[in-house]
Amino acid sequence: MTEETENGKESKNISSQIEKNNDSIAEKKTKEISTAISFVEDDELEDAEDEEDESETANKTCDAVEAQIKTLIGTGHMFKAHVIAKKAFQKHPENANLAQAYALVLLKTGALEESKKLVYQILGIVPQKDDATDAMMITVEDLLTCKFLTQGCPEVMANIGHIFKESWKYSHHCRDLEISRELYMASFRKNKTTRTGINAAWLSWLTGDDAMAKQLATEVLKLLPQFGLESSFSDLTNGAEAQLLLGREDDACRFYEEAMKQSANENYISIVTARQQLYFLKEAGFKVPHETLEILAPPTIVVFTGHAIDHPSFQISLFPQEIEEDVKRVITEKLQSINAKIGYSSASCGADIIFIEALQSLGGEINIILPFAISDFIENNVRHAGPRWEKRFERILESAHSVSFSCEDRYLGHDMLYRFSNHVMHGSAVMRGKFLTTEPHLMAVWHSRTDSAPGGPADFIDRWTNISTLHLIDLDEFGETENAVEKIDLSLIQPQKSSLAFDPFISQSPDRIIKSMMFSDLSGYSKLQDEHIPSFLDFLEKLNAAIEKVGVSLESLNTWGDAVFAVAGSAIKIADFGLQYCDIIESLGKKYPEFPFPIKARISLHSGPVFLAQDPFIKKVNFYGGHINRAARLEPVTAVGQVYATQQFIALLYGETNDERNEYIQKGLKYYEKYSTEYVGVVSLAKSFGQQEVYHLRWK
To answer: How would DSSP label each residue in 374-441?
Structure first.
């Protein structure tokens, strides 16, 4: 049996273990089981996951499946929502509720045109080509004369209105807002709810009808009982928005405060949704009082790092097992003090597992990210503390909301994989924070008398740029310090090689380094005829001249034929180069009408640990490893004219831009977001290289 097959089956077993623990529907609603989802190497695993998804929804009613999809969207678990929505719609294509839920998922994952096509089918309207935008669209007149507006279900009307409102954020076509308003108005006329009323009011304001906006806001307030009586969280927040629209800021704040009193019985999604609405209005030009945003405090996201339980071969103690309860008490107190609800962590014995168990005991959501193959992780990070810790490790994997890998490869004794995993963990938390309109915190259980080692707690702390979101727990405070040395030599707290299972290959393995990389080729190059070659050579010459002017500092840039391979030490550099390269190709391709079709690029971006060594043939330094292959295998399945990036690359990009933003803020400068990302989904890579979570990257 090959190592690759063993890893694939191992990932499959983990996924099965986790699924077995998901007995309650309430848990399944919010869980995204993604064990090894980014690196599936076995077709059997894909089939098994499909069967699990089918069994998960087989016994549910259409209404329950729709609610599950909405909950997954609300928690930011788009992949799981997409899988369930697609299967449910294929099984019940006649169900308008499932159709609109699937359309919303498509919209949220960046498939704007596919989402619109589905919505047009529900409405029963055939779109026409718009001369101004060259897109297939419907008009307000089409909507006002369709049967759906009079015969449709009010709830579905409102949901489709929401889809058109969300679509406007992507398309920026005012027509989408106007159509959304008419759908919400029609829904409100049929079934007067605070939700449909306030949406119709804001859409009226956005489209310039201030009088109607205030009239609808007044009607919304009349639907509420007298202030001070029991009202739901959503009714109170809708009422608060109505007060804002009528210019009553103090009343709006009182409504929000009352709503937060009711929030104990609410999922944090409700608070985030209300907060997102205020940010939406703020971006649209409405003056939103800062006090309202402070009242609607989102859940805190915590990234965690910490020392493991002492290895038996350590010559000095950092984390003895007897201080476990003290550490857990302090972690729990700090989590409670910052209202932590979402955690990202590895799962080593010691601080990691203690953190995970503490957050779970507080009802929090745990996302585990492991740095390399699980068999190596258990051997190097869990087993030395004894069977009790290994059993606890198994339990937290089963109960976690998600389990994934920053790198699917073997450890090979390379501590840099821990640092890479920290980068991915940080970026993933930043991505989640953008969705929840908050910034992640870092909590670290460390030892103040140890120096920084790659991927260790001190290393993570050193790279954290916002000290206001940093929470430190010093292990030195739990032990004897009377005769303590000022600094602890790292060699005293490194596991001895004699106690580790290094085989001859691992001990001879060259070091790995973290790099970001780009692969690109030109669509249609292989179909050019001989008569096109002179023009193509001219095209390449102009392309080369343009690339030299890009001004991005790269560590390596190789070309062969129409292909380009670039490497840099940061995701930002590769993102800038890839997007500029795509723009150059797009612009140059239009200047050669003699080509049988426009020349466009397919560009793939990835980040990961690679080997750096001298090529024995060309006598130059080159890069090697599975992550080079992964980047190369994504390029052929990238949409023509687009830039696709792996989840690892996007996580690093978000982490780097977050650090850059904090540096700007500290200098009193304004930071402008450069990038926009849309979730594409899980894509099958070329040449049977498995599957990969992929994002569409573009300029903002």
So the answer is: HHHHHHHHTGGG-HHHHHHHHHHHHH-SEEEES--S--TT-THHHHHHHHHHHHHHHHHHHHTT---E
